[in-house]
Specification:
The structure holds two protein chains of two kinds. Chain A has a single domain (3-215), classed as Beta Barrel (Sortase, Chain: A). In chain A, 19% of the residues lie in helices and 30% in strands. Chain A contains two helices and ten strands; from the N terminus they run ααββββββββββ. Chain A has helices spanning 3-21, 23-45; strands at 62-64, 85-91, 96-101, 115-116, 129-133, 155-160, 163-176, 180-182, 191-197, 204-215. In chain A, the strands form two sheets. In chain A, strands 3-2-6-7-10-9-5-4 form an eight-stranded mixed sheet, with helices on one face. Chain A has a two-stranded antiparallel sheet with strand order 1-8. The longest helix of chain A has 23 residues, at 23-45. Chain B is mostly helical. Chain B has two domains: 6-64, no CATH class; 87-182, no CATH class. Chain B is built from eight helices and no strands. Chain B has helices at 6-19, 21-39, 44-64, 66-85, 89-109, 112-136, 146-151, 153-182. In chain B, helix 2 packs antiparallel against helix 3 (44-64) and helix 4 (66-85) packs across helix 8. The longest helix of chain B has 30 residues, at 153-182. Classes of the chains: A alpha+beta, B mainly alpha. Chain A binds chain B through residues 3-4, 7-8, 11, 15, 25-26, 29-30, 32-34, 36-37, 40-41, 44, and chain B through 77-78, 81-82, 85-86, 146-147, 150-151, 175, 178-179, 182-184.
Chain lengths: 216, 196
């Protein structure tokens, strides 16, 4: 092998190595950029454009839970590539704010963002249950990594359709990680359920049930 | 934000250097070393000593100020991604101008393979620019507003494809430039006839 060829091959190997090594970082940068643009877009449209009507979804007691490290979203069957946020979830206590998309968006997956589960209601449904899941841990998409710091009576907010929904945590419990979760909630109240893996425990998930206390 | 005069800006910078006089002295030392390296007539050992001193100072600086340094690199990469995925109209036009410039330079100076790649990638970016003009013709979009551009899926596709292609192409050209510095530049000599 000539010296020149060796140099070229070395550079290619170095470049590919950097790409592989930093691939997670680059993915997180892409998400960050989309977040930034979505936030700009959301702030512009929220005052002028009414959101589309949403079908009333049923809120079952047992829901199919598709979160976990092994989750693979079947994006091939969904051609929708809508990265636009329709609302924001914020928890001031842990300095958390993140947008969420429509259920059928390609971005509505815990591998990219926080995810509204398919059996979830939207915040404007009376006596509905908004169910949002997210990863905990240390990855770039571990948006719910600080959820363990929450206690009963802490407040969670959802900004949706230009209305601010205030929820108060009423119950926190863990369940085994089986792919299904039992949601114990008062069906006469409008609720918000957050689901994530239990901190430092691989076999369980923690569920945070909160009830609507105010909307303005 | 305060609109300061040039004198006020210099004054503030000198005040800052006064407060951090040690760093100021180190930078002055590097300046003196560089001056002596470039214009002085030094022995080989002195040059090695100078270069080692500069490297040591640089390593010390990186270790001492790695947090703001990493922060700057992180912000830089975020902005490169922003440029690739959501270029503004100014960024987009700058892409086109740089594309034309790279093509012109490549025609004269680049090696055949690189020249071909640059001409054809440049052609794709320019073709996308024409498609962009066609797409923009007839739609009511505020071009100064980035979100207004990206509301339109066709424009989003054109802008993003151009942005990503341009950034990858630019990185490719930078790597080619660096690699060229390391390659041996052999000049083909004409074969001499035995009679000469």
């Amino acid at each position: 092998m000539s010296r020149n060829l060796k140099i070229i091959v070395s550079f290619i190997v170095l470049f590919v190595g950097i790409l592989i090594f930093a691939s997670e970082y680059f993915k997180s940068k892409k998400i960050e950029v989309y977040d930034y643009m979505n936030e700009l877009y959301y702030n512009e449209i929220v005052d002028v454009e009414p959101l589309e009507e949403i079908d009333n979804g049923s809120t079952g007691t047992i829901i199919n839970l598709e979160i976990g490290e092994e989750l693979v979203e079947d994006t091939k069957s969904k051609e929708i590539n809508n990265y636009t946020y329709i609302g924001y979830l914020s928890i001031p206590k842990i300095n958390f704010k993140k947008g969420f998309t429509e259920k059928d968006s390609k971005y509505n997956t815990v591998n990219k963002n926080i995810q509204i589960l398919s059996s979830s209601s939207y915040p404007d449904e009376e006596f509905g249950n908004v169910i949002i899941a997210g990863h905990s841990g240390n990855s770039s998409v571990s948006y719910f990594k600080d959820l363990y710091k929450l206690n009963l009576d802490d407040y969670i907010y959802i900004d949706y359709n230009n209305v601010l929904y205030t929820y108060k945590i009423v119950d926190i419990y863990t369940i085994p990680k089986t792919g299904k979760a039992e949601i114990k909630r008062n069906k006469n109240k409008t609720t918000l359920t957050l689901i994530t893996c239990t901190k430092n425990v691989k076999t369980t998930q923690t569920i945070y049930i909160s009830e609507l206390v105010n909307k303005e | 934000m305060v609109d300061m005069t040039l004198l006020d800006k210099f004054k503030l910078i000198f005040e800052f250097i006064e407060k951090n006089y040690f760093i100021g002295l180190v930078i002055l030392l590097i300046g003196v070393i560089l001056f002596d390296l470039i214009y002085g007539n030094n022995k080989r050992q002195t040059k090695i000593l100078y270069i080692l001193t500069i490297i040591l100072i640089l390593i010390y600086t990186i270790f001492s100020y790695y947090k703001p340094l990493f922060n700057i690199i992180d912000v830089y990469i975020t902005n490169v991604f922003k440029l690739a995925y959501f270029p503004s109209i100014v960024d987009y036009l700058t892409f086109i101008i740089i594309t034309i410039l790279i093509q012109f330079i490549s025609i004269k100076k680049a090696k055949p393979i690189i020249k071909n790649i640059n001409i054809w990638v440049g052609f794709i970016i320019e073709a996308l620019f024409i498609f962009n003009l066609i797409a923009l013709n007839g739609v009511n979009i505020n071009l100064s507003n980035v979100t207004s551009i990206y509301e339109n899926n066709l424009l989003l596709s054109i802008f993003q494809t151009t942005g990503i292609l341009f950034i990858i192409w630019l990185i490719f050209n930078i790597i080619v430039l660096i690699v060229n510095k390391f390659l041996e530049n052999k000049i083909d000599m004409p074969k001499l006839n035995d009679n000469y």
